[in-house]
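Support request from a user on the community tier.

User writes: "When I paste my structure tokens into the form, the page sometimes reloads and wipes my input. The last time it worked, I copied everything first. Here is what I submitted, just in case something in the input itself triggers the reload:"
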């Protein structure tokens, strides 16, 4: 593996279904362990780029290579890319416990349910939300929502995070 080019974005392009070309040819690489920020005016294509890295959008050109492997035909759940959305993304129909467990129950590194629950309870205890396990996200205070989201991200235990 080339640690200097852990993530490589090569000539990435995105033309939306309405014909608007949001990304023309974006290329950059990220060294393993680096914290990188995409800076630019609103509408310049930051979210579009991150959505393609996470697999929520398909590029219309170019390639995304992580750890030497193209992600183009890899499903989002198998990419090992965590995505911290600008707004808290908790599933409203699931309880706090189910939300925290969820990342551990999907994808290629998924854990047995009882193990996932044990780990989820440990995270919830650390962030003092263990008593809210059966609540739905809509009933939580702001602080508890943030704690629940922190637990959910931690439980994903992924190596790569993008923040859109
Ligand atoms: N689904 C879409 N269809 C068409 N155009 C879109 C769509 N989503 C975003 N855009 C346009 O693509 C450009 C880049 O958007 P975006 O990636 O959200 O920018 P940023 O995150 O940098 O503010 C903007 O001009 C936006 O209006
Ligand atoms: Mg954006």
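"...and here is what came back when it finally went through:"
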């Amino acid at each position: 593996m080339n640690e200097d080019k852990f993530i490589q974005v090569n000539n990435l392009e995105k033309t939306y279904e309405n014909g608007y070309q949001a990304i023309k040819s974006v290329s950059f690489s990220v060294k393993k362990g680096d914290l990188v920020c995409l800076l630019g005016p609103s509408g310049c294509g930051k979210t579009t780029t991150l959505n393609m890295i996470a697999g929520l959008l398909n590029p219309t050109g170019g390639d995304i290579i992580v750890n030497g492997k193209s992600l183009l035909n890899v499903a989002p759940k198998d990419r090992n890319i965590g995505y911290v959305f600008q707004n808290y993304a908790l599933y409203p129909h699931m309880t706090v416990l189910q939300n925290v467990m969820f990342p551990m129950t999907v994808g290629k590194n998924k854990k047995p349910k009882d193990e996932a629950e044990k780990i989820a309870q440990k995270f919830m205890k650390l962030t003092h939300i263990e008593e809210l396990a059966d609540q739905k996200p809509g009933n939580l205070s702001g602080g508890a929502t943030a704690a629940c989201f922190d637990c959910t991200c931690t439980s994903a235990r992924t190596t790569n995070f993008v923040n859109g």
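Agent notes: The reload is a front-end session timeout and is unrelated to the input. Residues 46-47, 164 surround magnesium ion (ligand 2) (CB under 6 Å). The CA atoms of residues 83 and 162 lie 5 Å apart. Escalated to web team.
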